Amino acid sequence: MTIALIIPARYASTRFPGKPLALIAGETMLSRVVHVGRQVQNKYPDIILAVATEDHRIETHCNELGVRCIMTLDTCHTGSDRLLEAALKLEETPDIIIGLQGDAPFTPLHVIEALLLAFDQKPDAQIVTPVIPLRWAELDTLREQKKVTPFSGTTAIMNKDNQALWFSKNILPAIRKEETLRQTDEFSPVYQHLGLYGYRLETLKRFVSLEQGHYETLEGLEQLRLIENNIPITAVPVEVDLGLAQAGIDSPEDIERAEKMLKARSL
User: Fold this and answer.
1) Which helix (H) or strand (E) holds 227?
2) Is 239 helix (H, G, I), strand (E, B) or coil?
3) pTM of the entire structure?
C-alpha cells in the first residue's frame, strides 16, 4: 500500500495572503510543517512527502528547504482539490493520501500516526480526521479567541462509533450545567477539529467531483460537503499537550498567539 503525505500550501489565501511564508518566531510556517512531515517520513521511510502549491514563491522556498514541490492549478477551490491534483502527478499513485495543512505547524507526530493506525484497523474507513477533547481551560481560551476572530477554530461532534456528525465554526455542543461538569471532569464535552485528513484515493476523487455544499459555503468548511453527501468521516480522538489545540494559524492574530505559546513552552 502506497501512502503519500502531501502539504497543501496556498499563497493566495483570502484571509491571510502569503500565510505559508509567514514567520513564526523567525521560522516560516511552511518550514515548521515540513519538519513535521519529515518526522513522519523518518519513522515511516516508505511514505512519500511533498508540498503542493499554486505559487512559485512557495516553490522557491521548498527548494530552499530541500522538499519536493508539486505545482498545481491556481483554480483549486479547496486543499483537497490540490491534494488530488498533486497525488495524481506522483510517479506512483498512492492508495492513501494524508493531507497535512500548511497552516498546522505544531501537529504532533502521534496525531498523524493515529490516522495511519485508523486506516489499518478500519479497512472500511474512507476518510479519517483527528479531533481533540478540550480541557476546560482550552475551551475558555477558544471562547475568548472567537470574540476577536470568530472563524478561528472548528469544533466537531460525533456519534458513539466516532463517525462525524457535524463540524462548525461555532462551539458545539451547547453545555447545560457546565459548572457541575467542570467539577467532575478535566475535559469538557467539546472536541476541536484539526485540519488534517486521510483519504482513500477513490473517496478523494469522489469528493472532488461533487459540487460545493450549501453548508460548506456558509461555514467555509470543505468537510461539510462530505457530510451533505452522506460520505462517512471517521473522527479519531487524540489528546495533545495543553495549548496545542489552539495552535492552528487561520489569521495574522494567530501568529501572535502561536509565538506566545512557543515562548511559554520554552520556559
Assistant:
1) helix 223-228
2) coil
3) 0.90
Alpha-carbon gap, residue 67 to 51, rounded angstroms: 7
Residue 128, judged by CB atoms within 10 A of its CB (0-12, 13-18, 19+), counts as: buried
pLDDT in tens, 111-169: 999 999 999 999 999 999 999 999 999 999 999 989 988 988 899 999 999 999 999 99
Q: Report the helix count and the strand count for the chain, using DSSP H and E.
A: 10, 12
Question: What would you report as the CA-atom Rg of the chain, rounded to the nearest whole angstrom?
Answer: 18
CATH fold for the domain made of 3-266: Spore Coat Polysaccharide Biosynthesis Protein SpsA; Chain A (3.90.550)
Residue 49 neighbours by CB under 8 Å, 6+ apart: 4, 5, 6, 7, 34, 37, 38, 40, 41, 67, 68
Is residue 69 within 8 A of residue 23, CB to CB? The reply is: no
SS (H, E, C) 152-185: CCEEEEECCCCEEEEEECCCCCCCCCHHHHHHHC
